[in-house]
Design brief:
single chain, mainly alpha, 2 strands, 79% helix, globular
């Protein structure tokens, strides 16, 4: 099998991927329909209202991150996902029925968006960490890359289909279709061979689990640097469901079909970036920073395109750079975090990535109404580019932080840091932490070997 798709040789992951692409397509259909409903039906082209809706949907990821991470590390992740997928499907069903019956109001959309955000806050870290249970550690970067490819394949298909359905039938049926797509993930989860899952050691019960996760991340300077980049990009740069709606409607005077098409065209670049990422065995910190700089430049270029066609073409490299950035960041964090901590670390990662949206989306909406839609994209490009350049400058001044992978051992948490700590005690504490992590990894390997025997 091609190195790009080697994770699909694993039965459980293959079943998961089949259900995920159906659900991802439905999710992107709902995102387009929700924004279009708020922008054109429930308000008169209010970018602020769209920003508030998006912000409410992502706010719980920031508020519940530590708790959601502890849940992902303590409970059976497969069962957690079954519960969250069921709840998400029910919320989509309620919204669809409200719209179809003509009773939907803006406050209802706000409330349901917030409810969906609450469910997604629990779902996201469990989903991210569950990937490592389905595949061996040596193919984890490939599985993460293919997960991103699946997400953006849905993004490639979903907006275009949603645009056509909105044009023909209105937004209500789109929400109902999305509700049905969650059944695909539930079916895949029930059909898995549970005995083949690589179950990690569950974290101990107690009040210290959340603090332990925060303490671990605080001691990992490489992860902290990635969180800074991801947080700024997620807050100001990755608001394209809002910014492309404003560009299509206010700059190019286009309708729902053309708006949906922009999402699909951008997803071409995103899908390409995901497939390229799936071929990399070991992501690098420098790739995260390089992709961030590229994203900033391409976003600025897209913001000044004079026609709809040129703007659509400019979104392809934007999608490529953004997906390369996010996949490299995600893989680096997962590959260097021990299994028993992965849920909590990924919860913080998702909180930083998605939690900035409640702040960024209303700001971006206000910028669009005050200075024009083009500035909504330009602002994201400027902030991302400046952040990446400042991180590079910090690395140069601090003599660098990098991640080293041991090809002859389990690659979890083989980290070297060239940044000098403030005091010798800091070096000793970090060394003890890394040694403890290696011992836990060795114990996991011994247990896996005994189980196989």
């Amino acid at each position: 099998m091609s190195p790009t798709f080697r994770s699909l040789s694993i039965p459980n992951y293959r079943i998961w991927a089949a259900g995920a692409i159906v659900s991802n397509t439905g999710t992107w259909m709902q995102r387009v329909a929700q924004d279009w409903l708020v922008l054109t039906v429930l308000t008169e082209n209010s970018g602020v209202a769209v920003g508030i809706t998006t912000g409410l949907q992502f706010a719980p990821a920031l508020l519940l991150a530590p708790v959601a991470g502890a849940v992902a590390d303590r409970l059976d992740r497969r069962r957690v996902l079954m519960a969250t997928q069921t709840a998400s499907g029910l919320l989509a069903l309620v919204l669809g029925l409200l719209v179809v019956t003509g009773t939907a109001q803006l406050w209802m959309v706000y409330a349901l968006a917030f409810g969906l955000g609450l469910v997604a806050a629990i779902d996201a870290p469990a989903r991210q960490a569950f990937v490592s249970e389905m595949v061996p550690v040596e193919v984890l970067p490939n599985a993460v890359g293919l997960n991103s490819a699946s997400f953006h394949a849905g993004r490639l298909i979903g907006p275009g289909v949603a645009g056509l359905l909105i044009h023909w039938l209105g937004t209500g049926p789109v929400f109902l279709i999305n509700a049905a797509t969650f059944g695909a993930v539930l079916l895949s989860l029930t059909r898995m061979r549970v005995a083949d899952l690589r179950r990690p050691t569950r974290s101990a019960r107690g009040k210290g689990a959340v603090r332990e996760g925060l303490r671990y991340v605080r001691g990992r300077r490489d992860i902290l640097l990635i969180l800074v980049v991801v947080g700024m990009v997620g807050t100001f740069g990755l608001n394209f469901q809002l910014t492309t709606a404003l560009m299509a409607r206010l700059v190019f005077d286009k309708g729902a079909g053309e708006y949906g098409l922009l999402g699909s065209i951008m997803a071409i670049g995103s899908l390409g970036g995901a497939l390229l990422a799936a071929r990399r065995e070991h992501p690098r910190l420098r790739l995260v920073l390089g992709a961030a700089m590229a994203f900033g430049v391409f976003a600025l270029v897209a913001s000044v395109m004079p026609t709809y066609t040129l703007f659509a073409i400019a979104l392809v490299p934007v999608g490529l750079a953004s997906l390369t950035l996010m996949t490299a960041a995600n893989s680096t964090v997962q590959m260097t975090t021990p299994p028993h901590m992965r849920g909590r670390v990924m919860a913080l990662y998702m909180a930083v990535f998605m939690g900035g949206t409640p702040i960024g989306s209303p700001i971006i909406g206000w910028v669009g109404e005050t200075f024009g839609a083009r500035w909504t994209i330009a602002l994201g490009g400027i902030v991302t580019l400046v952040t990446a350049l400042l991180c590079v400058a910090w690395l140069m001044l601090a003599r660098g932080v990098h991640v080293r992978y041991d090809r002859h051992a389990n690659p979890h948490l083989v980290v070297t840091e060239d940044v000098a700590p403030a005091a010798p005690a800091g070096r000793e504490a970090e060394a003890r932490e890394r040694e403890t992590a290696r011992e836990r990894v060795a114990a996991d390997q011994t247990r896996d070997s005994a189980s196989a025997a």
